[in-house]
Amino acid sequence: VQVHGGAVQEEAVVSTQSTGGVSLACAAAYHFSWQHDPACKYQVDSAGHYLHRIPLEQLTSPEPVILVRRDDEVRKKLHNTVACAAGILLVYQLVSILRQ
């Protein structure tokens, strides 16, 4: 592979910009669409950790689906932090390209 005129560097910048743009778009879509929906706080307990808490006489299905309310604030903060960092990098790279 021969590098002529920084072609590899330009390709990396375009790749980073598109990834940063997708990250921002996903974070914005999540924030404005269903972040505040109360149903998104519930996740399926596929491991069966909470099955022992339900009395057997109340079960009407041989394979019950158990929903557990989980706090996802840490995950939201991490996702938003990564998206903001990608956005800052995206803006920085666009400004540096426009200044050239």
TL;DR?
This protein is mainly alpha-helical and 100 residues long. Helix content is 54%, strand content 6%. The protein is built from two helices and two strands; from the N terminus they run αββα.
In terms of DSSP E residues, the strand content is: 5-15%
What class, by secondary structure content? Answer: mainly alpha
Q: pLDDT below 50 for ≥5 consecutive residues: which ranges?
A: none
Radius of gyration: 22 Å
The main β sheet shows up as: 2 strands, antiparallel
- Overall pLDDT confidence: 78
Q: What is the tally of helical segments?
A: 2
Distance between the termini: 26 Å
Query: What is the total tally of β strands?
Result: 2
Order of strands in the sheet with most strands: 1-2
Helical residue percent band: 40-55%
The H/E string reads HEEH
Assign an overall shape. Answer: rod-shaped
Please tell me about this protein's structure:
This protein is mainly α. Helices cover about 55% and strands about 5% of the residues. The chain contains two helices and two strands; from the N terminus they run αββα. The longest helix has 27 residues, at about 5-35. The model has no long low-confidence stretch (mean pLDDT about 80).
Write the layout of secondary structure elements.
Elements: H1 7-33, E1 42-44, E2 67-69, H2 73-99
Antiparallel strand pairs: 1-2
Helix pairs in contact: 1-2
